Amino acid sequence: MARTQGSHSGVTGPRIRSAALKLFAQQGYAAVSMRQIASEVGVQAGALYNYTPDKQSLLFDLMEEHMAGLLAAWAALEKPADPLARLEAFTRFHISYNLERADAVFIAYMELRNLTAKNFDAIEAMRRQYEDALEAILTDGVAGGTFTVPDTRIAAMAVIAMLTGVNTWYREGGRLSLDEVGTIYWDMVRKAVAA
Amino acid sequence: MARTQGSHSGVTGPRIRSAALKLFAQQGYAAVSMRQIASEVGVQAGALYNYTPDKQSLLFDLMEEHMAGLLAAWAALEKPADPLARLEAFTRFHISYNLERADAVFIAYMELRNLTAKNFDAIEAMRRQYEDALEAILTDGVAGGTFTVPDTRIAAMAVIAMLTGVNTWYREGGRLSLDEVGTIYWDMVRKAVAA
DNA sequence: GTCTATAGATCGATAGAC
DNA sequence: GTCTATCGATCTATAGAC
Questions:
Q1: What is the mean pLDDT of the segment spanning A174-195?
Q2: Which nucleotide has the shortest C1'-to-CA distance from B50?
């Protein structure tokens, strides 16, 4: 029953988003044309507009979905009460969640400037919420005497930057497993904020 | 003797690069047109081609110049022999050099994918050289017992990512001086790699 | 829901006058 | 060294057939 035309049982939408995610990450939002995305999916450019009102919405939806997924996954994670153990959980969570979604992470950071002002504010608020989650752990640990940091806000930014940096060098099938990378970074994070 | 046309005493070239740097950082290479750059400088688009063979060369020259300047500045810096002091020097150097050139740093990282293969290799080699400089400090310190890190290569990548992250949140005239930021990050770096 | 066709705008780069 | 003018290509988005 193969059809070369017509309905695709509702799979075209996800395939468009998947193609856009990959192409935006590889070449950048501005450098990717709607025709390229359509070609990757196997439809004509006009068909994309059955699924998105315009290119900007396509970008925003990808970023919004990624940030919402990140926040939801962290919220759903079972977290130890102890600040030290909670910081380790955050470290390993951040590395593994981001490594498994390298394209989305890249886009969520690189394409902020291509969002309209309204869309930018929405994404920034979600990013801020995630940073706040880490800062809360640090604040708890400082209050309890487990951690000593010069400034909890800056320490949170520093830890996130350090951990997200894994995405720039890690390659699947390299010399280190994801778990080993987590252990290596946890060692550095733990010492960096230690009392 | 004001002239609205004709030679501008050799200042047009630098002004073109300055305008391109600013616009590429704000909107991204692919999103900026040669006409936009020309308009920022106050010339017509055709005039740009007296200074660059094409748009790609304009981008590459900006990135190459930035990386060469970074390497030259680090090489010229007077560096203590002691690994701990040398790591502090690197930390403060990296933060201040990069903060003072935020646009170029942003471009050198974000626009790598818009380089031709040959140009990409050239920039990557320079970046690698810079990473090696930091790794050498860590290796020395580990050998001397001053530092303990799980992996000198990864530690170098982690420190650079953490330090470069300052550019995402630091704003001139904010609550912290550049020197205070350096001290805060040095505290975290020092502890992260401490024996 | 996808197609073809196209409107209307903009792009990088070049040619030739001054 | 800069201008005006333009070529040929490409872009987003829409209209209307099927």
A1: 97
A2: D1
